[in-house]
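Researcher: First entry.
Model:
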Amino acid sequence: MSIILPTFLLLSAAGAFAQETAVEYSNRISITEDRLVAGFEEASLDGFHAESGLTLSMSDASPLNVRPTQGSSVLYVSPDEGIPADRWKTVSRSFETPEDFSSSPVAQFEIFTQQGPNRNQRCRMRLYSGDSYAEGTATIIPGLWRNVIFDFTGTKVVGKVDRIEISLMCDSQEEWNNGRDFMIDGLRFGKPMDLSFMIPGSEVVFSRSEGRVGWKNDALVYRFRKGAPLVSCDLSGSRNRTYSPPLGNSVADFYAQRNTFFVLMANRSRASRVRLEWTTDKAQGSKEFDIEPRSGMKAYYFNISDCPEAVGNLKSFSITPLDAARGKWVIDMIRFEREEPIIEYAGKVESCTADRDSVRICGSIRDEDLSAYSSILVYEYPLAKEGAPLQSLHLLSQCPAAPSFEIADIPNARLGGRMTHLSTRFLAVLKDQDGNTKPVDKPFYISNWRDFTENPYHFDLPDKDFSVLRYGARGDGFTDDTKAIQEAIDACSKAGGGRVVLPGDDSPQGRRYVATNIHLRSNVEFHIAENAVLWQSYDMRDYSYVPAFGHDFDIPGCPWTHCLFVNLPLIQANDVDHIKVTGPGVIRMADPWSSNPDWSHYAKGCSDRIHICALTAENCSYIELTDFDQIRTSNYHTSFYGDDHIFIGNVKMVEVRCVSGDGLSFAQGVNHVLASRVVFDSNDDAIVLCNSYRDPRGKNSPWRYDEDEVDHSVRNILVEHSYINSGKSGAGKAIAIIPWGSTNPDQCKQLLDSIEVYDCVLRGGHSVGTWCDNPFDGKPFTNAEQDDYAPVMNFRILGNEYQSACDLLCVKPTNFVTDCGLHSSTSFVNADFSLGYAYWTREGDAGAKNGYGFARGGGALLQGIYLTEGKHVIEAEVRGTGVLEARDALSGKCLARQGFCFESEDWTRLSITFETAAPADCLIGLGASEEASVRNCKLCE
């Protein structure tokens, strides 16, 4: 990778100023050996002055409901009302004696702005030397403290600065009104602390006792002698603790501890082994690793998860060549990752299969463990109990330990036969006579899940493979393979279709293909092979656009705009058909460590992440997603818009890294979906059923769409055999009913209709719940409005395990049958058909027009309502030839039927009377052998 060096430009306007460009490195580096230029703790404002139209003061930041980033006060800037938004609003400080920042050329400060009239706010910093200046600009997302970093290395002015300017503007011709004050804090200059070594001088982070440390072409160059170690400085003061992560194996929250040093290095020496040593605030440790002698650039994963000294926050580390006295290392990057912990297993689980009656587990045990352990035990080990003691788990079976074992006595039934084990994660352990245990293998699932489902949307593609390696992909864990992967996909589609393959390897970490944004094409299967990983790039320079960092983006008039809406997805499909993404490989999102002390809310670990959605499909037909894992997502796992005929099977979405980790998001026109044996362990809504209307995020996103005239109904969705936990460090809803279409004049285009969920574990803030208050109606979202939702109808949620509460708040659905305590409305909804056929179940030829419902040719028009025990009278106006009837919604048993026949077109009021022996969901309405109509239905108690 090549660094972007400052460029020098001469302005032609009367030759007034010579301009140079500084490079922005916000969210990507830190500084060290820094000096504070303005801490804004003095009444003198640290010598800063404002241009006309601005007023400066000192503040404790409380007027904008935050705290200073350091100390007790900030520089508070109040623009006058009526200033144009696109005018640079500038504060400056002059120096009587010019300052020399050439040895500390990286500037860093914090800025807090409020929402402007446009989404694009920019911050500018200028260093002046006489009439010459160097400037850098950065995009600012308002509403939170933003850390801004500019590198002035190599500029002519940096050694003789007589004035500093910091400015803010918004790309809008509107006025900057409504008290849009902003704040600045903590202006510092220092040397770069950059373990990606993008900046000349970033080698200052390391020292040596022998040899030389330098910088060249985006890399640290270490010429070692006498086997001397390369030693880092104290990293504990790095911005947002980026280079001082907690070490260990805990996954208790989003900020999972790190256990691996990712080192990208060319070893130009005979060294074949190194020692990694580290110091934390709690311990010191070391471990030796093999490296490849005389090699080019290669990614090394120095995994220390098996070291008890890998605890506490990292302070410093060193790398020592062990078997070469002299040589050269070129280090391109050092990063801190979390990889699979190194665990010694006692054997191997070779298969886990099931039939309708039982589960069969086969495996083997190592000879060295047979003498120490006497029994094999198999437990249910749900993801919600990760790390829990064995005594808290449900024991399913046990048998004597043997070199080969088979367990076939586990019934394929849970909860008294209501559920199968298809959603179960199993754990096999050895146990000795003293109660000590050792895992046999990793947790596992039933493998033959396909025997219990049938893909109703199956399609075949041509039997042709296109390896991405043939198109230049490296799969080396650091090269950007986006272009090569895209060329393979395009060639496959152009050739009539087939399978694009990301090959795997036999390494512990898998073969990793770095990418940023891949477009699927029609008739292409994108196959991530076993032990292959599609890995989102960490490096901003790999992206074809300037990505937004952080969790939330601020767009005026657009609620809940996460950065994922303005950044492009990792895998993207638009207006294509017959596409597949298949495993058994892994889709892994970028997971940099940081913890922003200036952010006190949920996204404090996200300020330095590039949030993108892992997989999106818009206006696509026939989609298959099967047999892959999706890990480390910081926001939505998937997004489906306007798609149809979707099959999702054996997809696992785990190890979420931030809130808003929604799972399968079915929105705005998605229909005909089967999701089978999905495993979801996250913190936000899992199965998202959302029929938004005029969602402004669609109009502000480069990949999302929003069309007013299309049918936004989400319908015909089946979810089966799945484990769905939405409660991991969050309070999402396992089944999330989001009827945000109340403002559409045609409510028949805004239905949540025909949804079935069975044989699933449902867990979260709610097992079944709703966000019912439409946020796109121009009113604030409170989730408390009583009538601000679109129709919800024809649900069957039965035969599941509900581990959390179920609540529909104010939503009154129809034909909503469950065994979790939720029911249909207790009275008719849309009885006058003013909303068309919304809330009415149609069978055959049936519908609504002109304020009445109709059925023809054996069709029926029915509404599901919940009736208490006792006698019930239903009245309605009818005409034509047919029946007014009541059925049990679950069994279909007829409860009452009244025939009628007349020759005129006059409306006639009829009634039926029946009794229910217990509370029941009932279907009530009209059936017609020829043609009949109904209106003004009423339940008379």
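Researcher: Second entry.
Model:
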Amino acid sequence: MARKERPLEGEDGPLLEFATALRRLRHEAGSPPYRDMAERAHYSVATLSGAAAGRRLPSLDVTLAYVRACGGNADAWERRWHAAAVELAADCPGPGPAGAAAAGATAAQGLPYVGLAPFRTEDAALFFGRERLVEDLFTALTRHRVVALVGASGAGKSSLLHAGLLPRLHADTPAREVTVLTPGPHPLDRARRALDLDRPEPGTDPAATPGTAERVLIVDQFEEVFTVCADPDERSRFVTGLVAAARRPGSGRRVVLGVRADFYAHCTRHPELVDVLREAQVVVGPMSAAELRRAVVEPARRAGLTVEGGLQATLVAHAHGQVGVLPLLSHSLLETWRRRRGAALTLDGFHAAGGFEGALAQSAEALYDSLSAPQQRLARQVFVHLIALGEGTEDTKRPVDRAELGQDADTRTVLARAAALRLLTLGDGAVELTHEALIRAWPRLRGWLTDDRERLRRHRQLADAARAWEAVGRDPGALLRGAPLALARELTADGGPVLTAAEAEFLAAGAAAEAAAGDSARRRTRRLRLLVGALACLVVVAAVATGSAVRAEDEVTRQRNDAVAQNLAETSADVAAAEPGLAVQLGLTAYRLSPTARTRDGLLSALMTSLPAHGKEVVAVAYRPDGRQLATAGGDRTARLWRTRGSGRPDPVATLGGEGAPLRALAYRPDGHTLATAAADGAVRLWDVTDPAHPAVAAGLPAREADVRALAFSPDGRTLATAGAGGGVRLWDVTDPAGPAETATVPGHRDTVRAVAFSPDGRTLATGGEDTTVRLTDVGDRTRPEPLAVVGGHDAAVFSVAFAPDGRTLATASGGRTPVRLWDLAEPRRPAPLATLTGHTDVVGAVAFGPDGRTLASASDDRTVRLWSVARGARPAPLATLTGHVTAVGSVAFSPDGTVLASGGYDSTLRLSATDLDHALAGACAHTGPRITRAQWASYMPYLDYSPPCSGLERP
């Protein structure tokens, strides 16, 4: 008979509850002796009995072995174990408002790894693997007044600055005075306080005075200047003042800027930063295998621990050559340490923690599962509120004031538990994500952002409008009215985001102002009716005057209709994602009120078919030559095949790839049986898509470039051109797709080649690159290409080139002052400028001619697709501007019959539009769905009588 266990001792808490539940499970199983359980579980009697002793939380492996020995549900107990671990972690000191010492002194707490948080100065004793880069940065700072540290999110920039550069500066003689700041919403004020511009006076260079140290300012997370600071003027003055203060003769100041790589283009908009990036730039790349091994092993060794050889190899294999993975590495090490076996970090502990990418998601899910249902809803609001949505860039974290999140008990619980797990950082009255890696690694958070993106964007717009209202002294002219006010008020319905006091007051003031305006409008209406009555009395004797009044009233009505139609067109775009049928009806009403180009474009945009195509950005689209199939390539490493239905929603057929690097480009061979894909790691694959439902790799081209950015088949299908990093353009013989062979290299470009296209006769190859040039090459003999001409009419990188079907016109896409240009190729050796197409407000990433050569489509980072009439080459004319993508549009293609235009965006969506604009407008009512209700009509068009635009939709 089993010996009776010793009673549990200690205070009530998660540990005692867990031990009690284990004992209850054993009792329900018939109280088997621990000796019998040991035989089943393969753990010792002491280990199993200790698991239910209540003195410490047993490891996950021991817990599951105990449960299986008692016949329990292992999945349920695994969730229970994670919930207990979260509660216990919340009771331990962690990075919270207790002060910087508790937040940063990881080594003092006995933790060998910092987890998701960046290394602080106090963690310098645990910072390994970046010694060479620290010296490079220090050397650059001694040579230049301003230095830019550039790297991807998660590459370790903040850790390098705090735990690497700061201690190195303090160790120098004389020790420098160092200040660290993040820009925040008002970077200019912070810079003035940090630089203390009143001292020293110009001409008193501390470096020239023996024993006097220079002052160093480190600006961490410099990208906040673009994501958190909303005032472009303050942003420019901050950048100018920062660089000028450091470079002023005798200033005695030096500045280090830590900036995310995907904000590089934003920096190039400021001439001062262009000089810095050109002269003094240090790039944070992936760590080498040796550096990774030091980062893994040395902190454990300092703590008297060992790292199992298999675990070392696994971690190095996962992280080697990868950028942005260091937070995942550090977090998985911390979670593995928590599941260590004695003094050893093991591969089993690593897998129990969720693995390399799963550890962070597992920690976040454990937090979520430990919360009550109301707390889970609150956690969703908190986490999405801490993220700034990207505009052509990845989403980023943003610090918010603690008061914005509320002071109730549930909020405090959510923040405390998230901080204990190092998912959030609390301090100085602010709250922020510990690292942006959480956005990428936690699927639930990504799902929240996808579901709430439009609502979040509207909330940000409301917050910006509220701040602008406060800045102008609460001027009534800055209040929202009409449809924008109605959309803003919808934010507070159905569990929307929590508004700050200032936002709530702004919204209430707008509602009050609109109500007052309505009363005033009704009074004006009564006065107008009295006037009309008086005029009626005089109609017999003043017919001419009456006619004039009618004409005046018509003009007033027209102006009102124009204003209402413009407002409706904008509202239609705002609601298109959530209610496409309503968006079409609003757009149709706007177009019928005032048939202008803008209302027509709004209606055409609402009629576009939109669907999520990939897990990340859609980088390329291509139609099969017969038009019955469409292929898309995405940043999620896959290509997808779709069965087309005109401009209707396509059906997914197959997914290609899924491993390796993100895709860059794809193209169909003219016979339609072969599809070529190019990836960021230089891999080019030829796929046999004869049976679209079962695609197979026919061949892979030998990797020649580190990154292949473009490819194209010749019209006869015998040659494939590939282009990418380093300026390389290569020609391949693909007469037999299963046995490709390189035939020639096309020289000329000095930087990455971003675009390639064959002329319709296959004799000319056009290429465009980041060296701002377009090159024409004679490839009639594919083994001996001959240069024809160099076209240099752009002042930025060339991202796309396209030949007209007759081969006499070339379209090129770029940025700067000449985003789209047309060239006359009547004489290929002397191409002549034909026209410049203006209208886009940002970089143009793709251009494509329609099959008839009379229409050109262009896709831009300004989130629009524009259609142009180019029938008269020297005098192009705009046809339509299509909106709907919420981020940059990177690819565009016409169907072979020219009736459909496909576009792919960085919002991961594919959009299809009919190109026969008149036919699309005439058939708009077929896409409206349920008829607009009276309540919806009153909300969006309160000053118009109810008149649904599509009368055939009436319901009984």
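Model: Note on the second entry: The first strand starts at residue 146 and ends at 151.
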